[in-house]
Design goal:
Strand order of the largest sheet: 1-4
Largest sheet: 2 strands, antiparallel
Strand content: 5-15%
Number of strands: 4
Distance between the termini: 5 Å
């Protein structure tokens, strides 16, 4: 029996929180930019911290599990 919850949550968050894909925090000259497909080192750091926070809450605090047979 495999636990696919952490894998699916990690992949979905990785895609959604890729800097520049949907949004970029901080943007160039603005706080938030949407769909610009550019990134910076600071944006990567901010998105990494957001990713870590959300995945920690979902996997450890809430405990999402998807079991398959």
């Amino acid at each position: 029996m495999a636990d696919w919850g952490p894998v699916l949550i990690a992949v979905i968050l990785f895609v959604l929180l890729s800097p520049g894909l949907l949004f970029q925090l901080p943007g160039r000259g603005r706080v938030v930019e949407f769909g610009n497909m550019h990134t910076s080192g600071l944006a990567i750091l901010v998105h990494t911290i957001i990713y870590f926070g959300i995945i920690t809450i979902l996997l450890i605090a809430i405990g999402i599990h998807i079991h398959t047979d």
